Amino acid sequence: MSFVASKKMTTFDWVNYTLLAITSFVCVFPFIYVFSVSFTDPDVYVPLKFYLFPDQWSLAAYKYLLSTNSFLNSLSNTIFITVIGTALSIVCSFTLAYTLTKKAMPGRNFMLSAVVFTLVFNAGIVPGYILVKELGLINSLWSLIWPSLTSAWSLIVIKSFFESLPAELEDSARIDGCTDIGVFLRIVIPLSMPAIAAFTLFFAVSYWNTYFNALIYLSDSKKWTLQVLIKTLVIDSDSNGVGQAGAGGDSRAVPQETIRMASIMLAMAPILFVYPFLQKHFAKGVMLGSVKG
User: Fold this and answer.
1) 79 has a pLDDT exceeding 90
2) Best CA proximity match to 241, nearest among 227, 249, 251, 255
3) Looking at residues 48-55, what average pLDDT do you find?
């Protein structure tokens, strides 16, 4: 330990740290620009000017966005599919993965083969669209939830995690009179909290960033997700689209660029706030099932 602590910095170390610092700055630079422009006062905003910090702070862009019906609708739609979708995905993934660990279950090998098959082969966009259409989910928020409840990768990782738990715990619970459901709820689930925390964030980020499925399944602008609305603002350069559902306020008083940047910040903020609290569970939750003793 003393040798490591007293080790001097070599030229190679300095080069590495310098390159890492430059790379980090390049990655952070766009966020700094987006943050600064979003908080810049419309009266002092100058197009195409780089803002490390706003010349004059203002919440005008945020106030305008939060006063528009279409932005609030897209935000509520995104919150709905994120909360409901994440909860259903956790229930579906963990119950199915636990079932696949039971070798005595009839049809287990077929189900496991089917899961692995979907990991290798994908039906494609057109069959997926036809399935959603036949289920009557076109132009419904449920079309963004039911087809995405779980994935083969999630099931395999969670199944591996369950198999790493000591089998003696389940046996002792059954001796004490627990049913299979009791064992799952009282023994397995409490031991799986790190994995649940990790996959909760995985699923939440996935649902929050839903874009492509919303683009092809939703035609009603009132049911757009936040990412589709931001695409309209940023890529299509149509800040007037924010108010198409009957917005309050006047977008002409707020520069389009500040509106775009504010919408990006509002889309990133929830995940940025939640991530630090669950990040510590990532490595533990995913790696627990990867090493067999």
Assistant:
1) yes
2) 251
3) 75
Q: Can you tell me the distance from the alpha carbon of 204 to that of 89, in angstroms, rounded to the nearest whole number?
A: 9
pLDDT at position 237: 58
In contact, 257 and 45? CB cutoff 8 Å = yes
Q: Taking each helix axis as running N to C, give the angle between helix 69-100 and helix 152-163, from 0 to 180 degrees, rounded to the nearest 10.
A: 50
Q: For residues 246 and 35, which has the higher predicted lDDT (pLDDT)? A: 35
Mean per-residue pLDDT for 107-135? 88
Q: How far apart are the first and last CA of the chain?
A: 29
pLDDT category, 256, cuts 50, 70, 90? Answer: confident
Q: How does pLDDT run across 137-159, given as a tens digit for each residue?
A: 999 999 999 988 998 989 998 99
Backbone phi and psi for residue 288, each to the nearest 5 degrees, phi listed first = -60, -35
Cβ-proximal residues to 108 (8 Å cutoff; 6+ apart), any chain: 99, 100, 102
Q: With beta carbons less than 8 A apart as the criterion, state whether 255 and 47 touch.
A: yes
If DSSP states are collapsed to H, E and C, what string results for the chain? CHHHHCCCCCHHHHHHHHHHHHHHHHHHHHHHHHHHHHCECCCCCCCCCCCCCCCCECCHHHHHHCCCHHHHHHHHHHHHHHHHHHHHHHHHHHHHHHHHCCCCCCCHHHHHHHHHHHHHCCCCHHHHHHHHHHCCCCCCHHHHCHHHCCCHHHHHHHHHHHHCCCHHHHHHHHHCCCCHHHHHHHHHHHHCHHHHHHHHHHHHHHHHCCCHHHHHHCCCHHHCCHHHHHHHHHCCCCHHHHHCCCCCCCHHHCCHHHHHHHHHHHHHHHHHHHHHHHCHHHHHHHHCCCCCC
Q: How high is the mean pLDDT of the chain?
A: 83
